[in-house]
Amino acid sequence: MVDPGKYDGYHCNDLVIRWVQLQDREKELRTLMARASQATGGTVIGQVTYRTDYESVLTEKKIVQQQAANKNCELVATYQSDQGVH
C-alpha cells in the first residue's frame, strides 16, 4: 500500500525526480517478469516474486500523477523550439 499523502510536501522538481525513478523501476520489473516467464514455470515464479512490487509502483505512479496535476506540474518535459516556422 502507498500512502496517498506521501507526496503532499513534494515540489514539482521532487515529483519529476520521483516520476523518473518510478518509470525506471516499472521498466526493470517488467523486464524481470518477462525474463522469468521465459523459464520453465517462470510465469508463476515471476508473478509471485515481482507482481506485488509492480502493482505498488503502478499505484505510486498514479498518486504522483495526481499530485502533479494538483500542483500544475509537468512530469514530462515539453520541448518548445525558440524558432518559428516560416
Can you put this structure into words, describing what you see?
This protein has 86 residues and is mainly alpha-helical. It has a domain at 11-68. It contains two helices and no strands. The chain has helices at 12-38, 42-70. Helix 1 (12-38) runs antiparallel to helix 2 (42-70). The protein is elongated, with a radius of gyration of 17 Å. The termini are far apart. 15% of the residues are buried.
Tell me the overall shape. elongated
Class from secondary-structure proportions? mainly alpha
The proportion of residues in beta strands is under 5%
| Percent in helix | 55-70%
Question: What is the H/E order?
Answer: HH
- In DSSP terms (H or I, runs of 4 or more residues), the helix count works out at 2
Task: Give the low-confidence spans.
Answer: none
How widely separated are the two ends?
A: 52 Å
Number of strands: 0
Radius of gyration: 17 Å
Average pLDDT over all residues: 83
What is the makeup of the main sheet?
A: none
Assembly of the depicted chains: single chain
